[in-house]
Design brief:
The protein contains 14 helices and eleven strands. With 342 residues, the protein is α/β, with parallel strands linked by helices. Strands 6-7-8-3-9-10-11 form a seven-stranded mixed sheet, with helices on both faces. The longest helix is centred in the middle third of the chain and has 18 residues. It binds iron/sulfur cluster. The site of iron/sulfur cluster has 13 residues, from loops.
Length: 342
């Protein structure tokens, strides 16, 4: 069952240097029980997409120019703020990146959790506090009853992040937007959080939109991946296919870069050669061409659309419905495949 469908989304910001489109012609679906990942460098549009799904673009100074976001038979972009507020937390919840900024420093963790349950599930204060302790235990916070009385500054960074995740899950939302959910966590806690997200998907059929720089995390947990560059999806595929055999030079560069730095595993997206495209001054043609070793004259003139392969290459499956926006994707998928497999 499709939980969420984004169609042709376009988000504009007006800046002193002129307008920029942080998200341009974005479309994707999220099915029940599925995790869809949005991947890309800073400025690629993935976090703006998360804001749009939550109806928060106007608060960030942007405008949704075109597009529709369908959830439960309703176009979210046509809702007013009162209707959207009802949906946030109860049906579509955000797992924030920065727990320190998202938690209220003047309220105990217990009261902040209980408030969500009182408002969205109609529980009494007593029931809500009991359920809150259970939720803190679920995210691995030790001695949860006593931690209900703690203020955010009395918890460690990892515990604050877990408390925030508990707050996102406690109303049992159908769609979770997880924006770099494990960035502040040590590996053991990150694994526990990922287990929790997996349980939400498997037991309740919740869908997760994962926004992440962590390619290992995406590879290990997501079902489908949309790679974004300069506000557009430039490649989309099942997670295991995408990283085992990219079709787009940018995806290939991201994947190679993460394993190369100092001989140690490096999961971030910092090492793709060249600087990300300036959204206020996109180059003509393919926005990636100034950084692309395979760029041709055509790439400098024309912008490629998302499409499948034109012909089969040795060992390349054509059956998955995957697509990439590159004039040379046959070369990348075929002739360069061994290099990416290494
Ligand atoms: S269209 Fe051309 S410039 Fe763009 S990624 Fe493909 S080969 Fe490189």
């Amino acid at each position: 069952m499709t939980l969420l469908q984004v169609d042709n989304l376009r988000v504009r910001y007006d800046t002193p240097r002129g307008p920029l489109w942080a998200v341009d012609q974005l479309s994707f679906k999220l099915e029940s029980g599925e995790m869809v990942a949005l991947v890309g460098e800073s400025g690629s549009g993935k976090s703006t997409t998360a804001l749009a799904i939550l109806g928060l673009v106007p608060y960030s100074g942007g405008t949704v120019e075109t597009g529709e976001i369908w959830y439960g038979g309703r176009n979210l972009l046509a809702l007013d703020e009162r209707e959207f507020r009802k949906l946030r937390a109860s049906e579509i919840a955000l797992v924030f990146q920065d727990a320190s900024a998202a938690l209220n420093p003047f309220l105990t963790i217990g009261l902040q959790l209980a408030e969500v349950l009182e408002v969205h599930r109609g529980l009494s204060r007593r029931e809500a506090l009991k359920e809150s302790a259970r939720a803190l235990g679920d995210v691995g916070i030790p001695d949860p009853e006593s931690r209900l009385h703690a203020y955010p500054h009395e918890l460690s960074g990892g515990q604050r992040q877990r408390a925030l995740i508990a707050m996102s899950l406690v109303a049992k939302p159908k769609v979770l937007i997880a924006d770099e959910p494990t960035t502040a966590l040590d590996p053991a806690v990150a694994l526990a959080v990922l287990d929790l997200l997996k349980r939400e998907r498997e037991e309740r059929g919740a869908g997760v939109v994962l926004v992440s720089h962590d390619l290992e995390l995406v590879h290990a947990t997501a079902n489908r991946v949309h790679v974004m560059y300069a506000g557009r999806v430039i490649e989309q595929a099942d997670a295991h296919e995408l990283f085992e055999r990219p079709w787009h030079p940018y995806t290939a560069a991201l994947w190679r870069a993460r394993a190369r730095i100092g001989g140690e595993r490096q999961h971030r997206l910092a090492a793709v050669p060249g600087a990300p495209a300036e959204l206020t001054a996109l180059p003509p043609g393919c926005a990636f061409h100034p950084r692309c070793e395979l760029a041709t004259d055509r790439c400098r003139r024309e912008r490629p659309d998302l499409s499948g392969l034109r012909r089969a290459e040795t060992g390349v499956s054509l059956s998955s419905g995957r697509r990439a926006a590159c004039f040379e994707k046959e070369r990348v998928a075929g002739a360069h495949a061994e290099a990416f497999d290494a």
